[in-house]
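Running this now, will post back.
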Amino acid sequence: GGVALLDVSSATPRLLDRLERFGVDRVRAVAVGGGLVASGEGSSGVRFLRVTAEGKFEELSRLSGLAGEVTDLLLEGEGQTLRAILAADRAGVLIVDLSDPAHPRLQ
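Update: finished.
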């Protein structure tokens, strides 16, 4: 299991990177948008990454200490309007301002 980054530009896909190298052991949800990848990691919160020109994941930030497990998420908007919408079992729906992805803020 886990989350992998693949190059599918040819007939034979090539593995570029895996989220497991960040010590991720459980991914509940993944979303891609606005130039970011978000990884919902249950009770560990959510991790925000980008993909480098070299085809590697680069961690920008993590948001943890949420009330409940992140079970689903989506990214919407771009730039200054980018935000994550998280479903967390005990906390309900949470909105995260990602206008600065290195410093996510709960709204």
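The mean pLDDT is 92. More later if anyone needs it.
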